[in-house]
Amino acid sequence: MEDTTYRIGELVFASQRIVNDGSLPELPEDAVLAEAGRKGVIVRCGHLAESREEIFLVRFADEGGTLGPPVGCLADELASAPPG
Description:
It is a single chain. This protein is mostly beta strands. The protein has a domain at 13-37. Helices cover 0% and strands 43% of the residues. The protein has strands at 11-14, 18-19, 32-34, 39-47, 54-61, 67-74, 78-79. The protein has a five-stranded antiparallel β-sheet, with no helix packed on it. Strand 5 (54-61) and strand 6 form a beta hairpin.
């Protein structure tokens, strides 16, 4: 497997608002999964089959620090440091 932008266990931050695209059927489509700046942890790394673009499963923490469900994010939706 190629080197990835992020590694499993790495702390990341949402670089923009992340919304449900329908891949989490238990939540309404367009539900906000993470606001920009929300802290998360990488739990899995992979590639989209069609484009070989990297995709990362991230569990974002809520205000109390509880990790939410894994959310698929592209590299440009994540940052290594909080905004600002």
